[in-house]
Every structure is written in structure tokens, then in C-alpha cells.
Amino acid sequence: KAGVTQTPRYLIKTRGQQVTLSCSPISGHRSVSWYQQTPGQGLQFLFEYFSETQRNKGNFPGRFSGRQFSNSRSEMNVSTLELGDSALYLCASSLAPGINNEQFFGPGTRLTVL
Amino acid sequence: GNSVTQMEGPVTLSEEAFLTINCTYTATGYPSLFWYVQYPGEGLQLLLKATKADDKGSNKGFEATYRKETTSFHLEKGSVQVSDSAVYFCALSEVMGAQKLVFGQGTRLTINP
What rounded mean pLDDT belongs to chain B? Predict the structure, then answer.
């Protein structure tokens, strides 16, 4: 069974641009969560989607948005990029929300903002 | 709010040494607790978990016990190997059906042969 796929793996953008990151969950998984990992702030929760609905959102500005499609694939978008948005963005999928459903993480997309 | 505090790294040990990585948490209610491991260039992998007080999670020789009285979930392994070199994250899951994980800052572990 294929794991969580994230594309692209690496991305370089300049300040003010926008970016879209994609996540394909494990087949059959309907819940997708996104995390930002930086050396300074560590791993921080961005959002969680289930059945195309955002169930939970972390403490990030409105420049960060996401969505989930009917096939459970998810995208996140960051507009008006800032230098501080440089990070590893991790996607995790699980069968459904709930603490008994293990979350499987993808390899991440490394975003560099110049 | 909920938070997780891990012992600061990096930690360097010799092969076959005993490992302890401390983790304490602050949370309302009764969260589930997790240890994740991240190898270079990869995402996170679940190492073990415990969902209620006094539960012991174990996997690949690693163990951790959910201690409600001390709000701790320390990771231990009796004899580490070079292949255990990685970054280890302690995390809690906020209660009742949420997928949101709150992570500690991570501890980089290096095992020398």
C-alpha cells in the first residue's frame, strides 16, 4: 500500500508570491492534517480536514488556507509569502478523526522563501 | 493551553547504552500520548502510544509509560543501536476525536558505534 505522498518535495519561492502544496493520503484514508516544522517553533498544527470539511485550525494567519477534495486529496495554500514561512510542511492521513486512528505522515514539502 | 516539554538535546550515546528521553506534558482532561521518530529526510513515524493512565506503549525495544501523577511519558530503551539515531518527538493528542497533535521540541539522538 502506497504511503502518504506530498508534492512537490522541494520548492523555492520569493517573498510576496503564493504557493500551493499537495497531499495524497493513503488509499482509504479520509482524514488529512497539516503541520509546519521549523527549527525555531518546532512542529505546529495547521489544519485538519475530514470529508471535505475543515474540522480544526491552528493558530496561523489567514494567509494559510487549505481544502480537501472528494477523493480525500488535500491542498494547502500560502499567499503573500514571508521569509518566516520557510519550513518543512508535513501532511498526515488517517482513516478518520479520532485518537485511536493512527496518523501516517508523508515525507514533507520543504519550502524555502527568498 | 496544552503543551509538551522534552529534555533538550542533542543526546549522544555509545551503542548498547541505556536510553532515557524525558517528556512531561500539561493538558486538560486525559490526552493520549505518543512518541514519534523522524529519520533524516523523512516524515514522522509513530513509535509508540498510550491512551490512558498507567498504559505502557512499546515497540522495537522502546517503552514509555503514561504517568498521570507526574504528567510524564519518558521514552526508554535498554540497549540502543546505531540505527536508532534520529530525532524523537513526544506528542499529545487533544481530547475527544481530535486529530490535532501537540509536539515537544524534539530530541536529536546520535548513537556512536
Answer: 92
Does residue B40 belong to the interface with chain A, where contact is any CB pair within 8 Å? Answer: no
**With helix as H, strand as E and coil as C, how does chain B read?**
CCEEEECCCCEEEECCCCEEECEEEECCCCCEEEEEEECCCCCEEEEEEECCCCCEEEECCEEEECECCCCECCEEECCCCHHHCEEEEEEEECCCCCCCEEECCCEEEEEEC
Q: Is the pLDDT of residue A90 over 80?
A: yes
Q: Are strands B11-14 and B107-112 parallel, antiparallel or unpaired?
A: parallel
Contacting residues of A for B100, CB less than 8 Å apart: 33, 45, 48, 56, 58
Using an 8 Å CB-CB cutoff, list chain B residues near A90.
Answer: 43-44
A56 has which bridge partners? A48
Tens digits of residue pLDDT in A23-51:
999 999 999 999 999 988 999 999 999 99
Contact status of B46 with chain A (Cβ, < 8 Å): yes
Point out which residues pair with A7 in neighbouring strands.
A22
pLDDT digits (tens, 9 = 90+) for B60-105: 999 999 999 999 999 999 999 999 999 999 999 876 556 789 999 9
The three-point CA angle A85-A88-A91 to 5° equals 115
Q: Does B102 touch chain A (CB under 8 A)?
A: yes
